[in-house]
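Reviewers of the previous submission asked for a worked example of the structure-prediction workflow described in the proposal, so we include one complete record here. The input consisted solely of the amino acid sequence. No template or homolog information was supplied to the procedure at any stage.
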Amino acid sequence: MNNSAPRVLVIDDEMQIRRFLDIGLRAEGYHVLQAANAAEGLALAATQSPDLVILDLGLPDREGHEVLAELRQWSTVPVLMLSVRSAESEKVRALDNGANDYVTKPFGMQELMARLRALLRHHPVTGLADVPPLYDDGHLLIDLVRREVRLDGNEVALTRKEYAVLALLLRHAGRVVSQQQLLREVWGATHVQDTHYLRIVMGRLRQKLADDPGAPRWLKTEPGVGYRFLDPPDGSVLPE
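From that input alone, the workflow returned the following structure tokens.
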């Protein structure tokens, strides 16, 4: 097996489709990972660092749209949606929610391969994984797969917006994330000027995490620019 081959994760509950894709992808030199449901797929995405994900919309345990939304909380891996649903509204929803491409079933293998090659050209395989899905510095634990946040062992109850902001900042740990980027990705493009929304959420996050803005442990304000999740001094972001 070529360890440098692009790793493609196929999440589809139809065994025939998985087998068809497995044969076709391996023939083209890809390394293939398979999952029959959302839970297996998210676990493999978190632990195996695929270079590309082929995601079916009609999974038995969760909607593909939900899986995509959760994946986008902590990963920028390119995602190609696969579905029998051909309605324009389904395609628009998937693309707006972070999918990179959308293919309807039935599909031709040659067209699918061309789309995969195009996605990988725009997201080249570098050998570097996304941010590890688990952060734990001994006080604060953030599990991006389980959507769980704990402070000194106690669960922290976050709203969807609070969690989304925290997850986005963690994905870019050590780097400044602008107010506009946070607003665009969490609230949508029509809210990029609504900075008061972000200030309220950041205030609540700091309160729940007992994080003093004057001497931050995790959430640092970059005045006039945005916010930054501070890198732990001992490198406590755990590997997969």
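The first helix runs from residue 15 to 27. We consider this example representative of the routine output the project will generate in years two and three.
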